[in-house]
Fold each of these.
Amino acid sequence: MQLSREDCLEKLRDILLDMDGCDPVAVKAAGEGTRLLEDLQINSVGMLYLVIVIEESFDIRFENVGISAFRTVGDVLDYIGDKKK
Amino acid sequence: MIHFMNWFLKITAWLPQKLVFRLDVSYEGGAKPTRHIKGPAIIVSNHTAVYDYAAMLFLFWTRTLRYQMAELLFRKKVLGRFLKMLGGIRIDRENYDSTGLRTSERILKKGGVVGIFPEGRLPDGDEPRPLPFREGAAWLAITTGAPIIPVYTTGNYFGKGKCPMVIGKPIDVSAIYDGTKTEKENIVAITKIIRDKVIALGKSLERKETVKKARPIGLKYIGYDFVKATAAVAGVPWLRTKIVYASQKARDIKGGGLIICNHSSFLDPIYMMATVWWRRMRFVATKELFDNPFKKWLFTKVFRCICIDRDNVSLDMMREIGDSMKAGELVVVYPEGHVFSEGAAAFKSGMVLMAFRGKCPIIPIYVQRPAHVWNRLRAAVGEPVMVSEGRLPPSMKQIEKISESLARTEQDLAQLCAGKGQRR
């Protein structure tokens, strides 16, 4: 079943909460424009964590891309959306 | 009749199963007594394919196995009759009928062997395996006192290679039965122990496979082996490495793994090759080392280094590290990130995720560079640390804790290297 963008965002919020590395209030309020580094305080290791869990949860592979390509939650959703097409 | 049918099948199908199943049987702890069962026993294994039952018949060929089977198999007239003749025990999952359990109990009390797939059905394609275990095996073991023999099968019956299976040591339920708890609580606890054991057997098998995959000969290693062999002519008498192991377990550097080490000199990779000299290893190196085509060729093709861009970590690089370890290779990373000739810097916790990706342990090593050219190289090797074998990595806080614990281990190894620490 194809997940809507809103469902993906909700799933991403759940992953960020389980990650246990950023402020839960900021995660619950996170939207597409929320910046991963500045607003959610996700460092490079946190980004790697996020990518591994996204690969498992959404059944996709991150290829030919570095972690700096993802600045906002929206960037991550765009990548997931492209991979899911 | 059941015994006759079993033996008839085993004799007539012995050769075909040898060609088709090609079971590669191993035993937990290397012991072999569990295959030739004496007295009553309950065989419990994960369920991967419809052929599991046939494989089990040949795995424990000296005994007549009475397997619990789903009711739907008996609905097919010919198959149902055939399975009945082989001693199949009908389990009615839909109506919660206990007749099958009572039959199993009776067989065990007479000294027979009962087989159970406690998952109750075959898992669907994307379901996490094994499925939760049903509690019949634990109940039978408590009621009859029969030991449980856990088995893990990979289910690769018609695959390209062999089908690895591992038989665990028998579980004596009377030794773990807790008299202060109710029978129901004991059944739940024992079922969990059985499931954990089957999972652990599967993990041990995966680990064994990575050891097998570490190939002694290969075209891609020619340059690496040539340089290492020629360098050893001068390096061995020069360095005369003295290795100290933190414990007996630390000596077990087999299969894939992530070596972490202090970084005090640009010669550290040479010191590492002189420490774990019997294994090939791949170093994770910063991209600055790959800044011209010759160096790029030398480090990637000859030394098979893995390039890391610290400012923008590539996800393909993470995958390459994980895949190397899964293929049985050792990957070396310096978690301090830079060369620190004095003291030690904080460890970067990305190494935990690298080890998680490779499903391999982290092996901490401390190398004390020789103070003078004529001094020996000293190194201390710690016990391998397994990060997580689950589907998802540990949480960020746990990752930080693991990193801190590994940093402390490095300090202990430094003491050991200096001859001040304690060996276990």
Note: The two ends of chain B are 57 Å apart (CA to CA).
Amino acid sequence: MSLPSISRMRFIRPIRPIRPIRPIRPIRPIRPILPMRALALGAAMTAALALAAAPDPNQILQHADQARGGGLPGLTWELRIQNSGARSNDDDPPMRLRIQAADDASLAETLEPLRSKGSRMLQVDRNMWLTKPGLKKPVPISPRQRLSGQAAIGDIAATNYAREYRATLLREEPVNGEPCYVLQLAANTRQATYDRLLYWVSTSRGTAVQAEFQALSGKKLKSAQFEYGNRIESQGRSIPFISRMVISDALTDARSILEYGRIVVKAVPATTFDVSNLE
Amino acid sequence: MRFRLPLLLLLAGAAAGASEPEPVPPFRVSGNAELWAYGAVTDRTTASPLNPANRVAQLPDPQWTGEARINLRVSRDGQELVLRPRALVQDNPGNGPGTRQAYLSQAFVRLRPADSLTLTAGRDLLTWGPASFRSPSNPLYFDAGRTEPMRDVPGVDLVRLGWTRGPLTLTVDRVLDAQRLEPAAPPPPMSLARLDLRGRDRLLGLVLATPVGGAPFYGAFAQATLGQAWLAYAEFGSGRRPAALTVSPGAQSAQSTQGIQGAPFTVQTPSPRRETTLLGASYTLVNGQTAGLEWLRDGHGWTARQEAQYFTRAGQIADAYRAAPDAPMAGQQLAGLGQGLGQAPALLGQDYLSLLWQSNLQESGHYWRLVWTGNLQDRGSQVLAYGELSLATRFTVFAALSRNLGGARTEAGCLFGTSLTLGVKCFVF
């Protein structure tokens, strides 16, 4: 595993400064009478240096979450979803949603297509309900219920991977020439949308570049690429925000393109996420 | 009573205006409008013990319906106005005059005086709970209409205060009018309190309503999300209903060739307190289709013996009517059957099983649903198949086929055998 440079670590400073890597000082000559102790000491020092320098994968994750809505007081945005490939009709109009999201909850209202207009989907933790103009009361649905095409309900809500997954830094590798940390995420809660993920986070921008969603067995289910053409104000800073997410099925050519716009950072009252108000 | 809904809306609107503090964002208007046109044919049960010559239930066959369903929402920070007007035109060729109706299915104002408080006034649906087949935890909407795809379920006129704090939500309602609900619902006014306790993957609701038939109604519901695909849930209710119908003792043997001597049925108002329980589970497949199973035990229903007595008694009256439809007793016989039909329990039996299989609710191009519901006592059952298919951006065709199995002396088959509805929906905006 290669160690990250100091310059690459700048993006996570707002969360917690990370100690820069100290240059490795030459080890004093080993006295011949204690060879084993010296070897052990050297190994321990090397390990300590490596530990001190290695970025905290959870901090990387927290930072990447912000650009996908995690850790913010509340968000409202519009989402456009276009499906293509297997199991979708090319004539299908795109789906347009208005999302209100807070820490652990989201409310998605369908604006288009016309035949689904007025549908509302509420998610609070892992409790989910759906209602439509024709339905008499909200229907509870399970997390497996897909939103549209390849997009799961968990894909449209604010992303809180740092809370839902245990991260391990595997390695660094470039994606389209951009150096990235490769994190392995394992669900540490049943609330997680996916069991396991591989998550590529740009070392310079601190935003997720791509993801590979896996089953518990490690089998690849689908993958996603992210773009960050939006910017939002958070705690007095302008930070990048997701503008496009492309989710591709691992086995077929089915693909969903999610485009994010009209983003407003503003606290959403808890009553918005009350199922009693989901008429 | 008629002035209550406008008055509620006016008061709430005035409160909204009065509470306007600073310049706020403009109102956001959203909504949709649908026009429905459909026709239905019904294969009436010729040997019906409750509906001889269709003189009691007067089931239309065929029936042509046109509907306009408009849903409007005007919202701004913490304020919301919801209007759901409906217009209905129905023609029943050869079966009496049609229907012309225009009404507000829902119309309410919702304010948020504080982040944790909501105040609702107007006509709103007071439904809750996870069950599809019936909702035992709800004293007003025991049948929330989930099994009837075309039915519009109207709201009740109410004032509601809701308080949310973390996982707790408390709502207190005062129901002032429920004139658009079915007669089986207890008459308002009534007060209702509901406490919801939400966990990360479960929800528990406790309901108290009083007075319902002069006695409190207790209800509860719970749902749990198990893994990614399973939902398990339950609903419970304990209370009285407006009426309990029984076969009059002694009337069983008091039959003559002219008809029935004495009142065929006895009505007790309100009914004794009974408990109703529903247990259910659903599983979502990888493709988003859902399969569900619900079992209902309704203490307000009859035992197999009581149900058999009911049909025997009704059958005797119906046979007598058929034998002499112009006899002087005919009017009394039809009135007796009307009472038997109209005041029978919401569900005749006590044990029911309902199986549901439906397509992904999120698919906008098509939707289908298959439902089998069985009365485990009389062995009668109903199969409902419903489907919608989008033909163009603004047009969807739909079909509903209902097939009742079990014969004329079962709950499912006592009125009709098969019903087919075909129609089209137009999405205006």
Note: Residues 35-53 of chain A form the longest helix (19 residues).
